[in-house]
Design goal:
GO terms for molecular function: metal ion binding; metallopeptidase activity. This is NRDC protein. With 192 residues, the chain is an alpha+beta fold. The protein is 36% helix and 13% strand.
C-alpha cells in the first residue's frame, strides 16, 4: 500500500443528467432476440456493501413465483425471463453513481407490446416502493442464508482470478471484510 487515500469522485454528481439518458433507444440486434432493458442511475451505494440494498431489490424483482412480475408477463405470453440487478463492477457501482437495471427477454408477442411490458415493470417497482422493505426481515434473512451457503460451498477458483478479486475488494471494503464483502450480507437496514 502506498499510504495514499483512495481517490473519490463523489463530487462528480449527476453524471447521467443529460437529455440523452432520459430516452428510449431501439437497437437492432445481430441475432434474433428481443430484450427490453430499463436502467436507473442512483446515488452511489458502495458504502452500503454490508447491507446490499440493490441486491435486496433485485431479489424481489427477479422472483419468479406467484404474484411476481415475471409470472404476470409469462401469463400474457410476453416474456421468457427477467433479471434485475447491479453487476457491482466499476462501471455499475462507484463513488459517483450506482446503476440498477431490469432486463426482460421478450417473446415476439412481448416485443409487439413492449410499452405495456415497460409499464408493468414500472408498476411493480412502484408497488415495491410503496410497500417498503419487509418489516419482519424474512426476505432479507432468506437472501443472507442463500448467499452464506453459496460462499461456504463455492468451487475453488483460479488463483489468479482470486487474487485479482481480493485486490479489488481491498479498494472497496473494510479490512475485516476483504474476503466476504462482495458476497455476504451483514446488516439489515430498511431505511437504506
Amino acid at each position: 500500500s502506498s499510504g495514499l487515500p483512495k481517490p473519490s469522485f463523489g463530487h462528480l454528481t449527476q453524471p447521467f443528467d443529460t437529455p440523452e439518458f432520459h430516452k428510449l433507444y431501439r437497437v437492432v440486434p445481430v441475432r434474433k432476440v428481443h430484450s427490453l432493458t430499463i436502467t436507473w442511475a442512483l446515488p452511489p451505494q458502495e458504502q452500503y456493501y454490508r447491507v446490499k440494498p440493490l441486491h435486496y431489490i433485485s431479489w424481489l424483482v427477479g422472483h419468479e413465483g406467484k404474484g411476481s412480475v415475471l409470472s404476470f408477463l409469462r401469463k400474457k405470453f410476453w416474456a421468457l425471463a427477467l433479471y434485475g440487478g447491479n453487476g457491482e463492477t466499476g462501471f455499475e457501482q462507484n463513488s459517483t453513481y450506482s446503476i440498477f437495471s431490469i432486463s426482460v427477454t421478450l417473446t415476439d408477442e412481448g416485443y409487439k407490446h413492449f410499452y405495456e411490458v415497460a409499464h408493468v415493470v414500472f408498476q411493480y417497482v412502484k408497488m415495491l416502493q410503496k410497500r417498503g422493505p419487509d418489516k419482519r426481515q424474512v426476505v432479507w434473512e432468506e437472501i443472507q442464508k442463500i448467499e452464506a451457503n453459496e460462499f461456504h460451498y463455492q468451487e475453488q477458483t483460479d488463483p489468479v482470478d482470486y487474487v485479482e478479486s481480493l485486490c479489488e475488494n481491498m479498494q472497496l471494503f473494510q479490512k475485516e471484510d476483504f474476503l466476504t464483502g462482495d458476497q455476504l450480507l451483514f446488516e439489515y437496514k430498511p431505511e437504506v
